Amino acid sequence: MTPTLVRQHRPHAGPRPQVDPCARARDWAEIQERMLVPLYEAVYERLDVSASTRLLGLGCGSGLALLMAVSRGAAVTGVDSCAPERLALARERLLPEAWGTRARAGTRLVEGNPRDAADARTPAYNLVTAFEPIGCMAGDSEGLGELLSEATPLATRGTPVVLAGWGPPERCATSSVLRVATKLADPLRSTGSWRPALRDDLEEVAQRAGLRPDGSGRVACPFGYADLDNAVRGLLSTGLFDAAVRATDQAQVDKELTEALHPHQRTDGTVWMPNVFRYLIARTP
Hints:
By secondary structure, the protein is α/β, with parallel strands linked by helices. 36% of the residues lie in helices and 19% in strands. The protein has helices at residues 21-32, 37-46, 64-70, 84-94, 96-99, 140-151, 174-184, 201-208, 228-236, 242-247, 250-261, and strands at residues 54-58, 75-80, 108-111, 127-134, 160-166, 212-220, 223-225, 271-273, 276-283.
């Protein structure tokens, strides 16, 4: 009888290598964040973001989406409670002392929750964005719902609230690569591993938050990288592989991620993965 081979995640011997959160945040800002620029542009164009816009950005990270809104004349407030290293980079990009008080006037960055952004001197917001894509990690929609419940009282009635998520797996080439995270993190599946996006993820979040859906769209956001190393660093910076690293080790994740990327490497060494992201516009009551 042929014995059955069972793959096991053995405890990592010795101390685990420590991830440098500052380096990871820099990889996000310099490599990965720009992949979502088409999404930001499509939303801002559709909603006519301009000098009359008072934007509250939830989970603003290193601030590229805010910077693009500021370039259209908007006054922006960014809030983030999960990524202090990314928020530090947003300060470098956006705060008046870095760029001149006139160039970035009306910009606020808050480390904390939306209620920490409440300020009697600040007019109510007329646009709320949550551009961190949901529908790819277990439990991510629940966390977004909590943010929205805190943010909507700070906005005027009928304010558009923009939610973003991954498109159908069959339209996202990166889905095959992200499955590495699920495969390696199986013992921790309930604590943050990747899952395929579901069709109604965004609508369900909006409904639970008491928001009224008012349109949606899909945007092509290809992921392009200079080489395999650049792609690995960019994808690791998303945090989607953190559970896999905890379940195995960094070397194993790097190895399997690189192997999964090989089919997407072109003859010139670059890596190219077409993807589609979806956004939902909902309105505050």
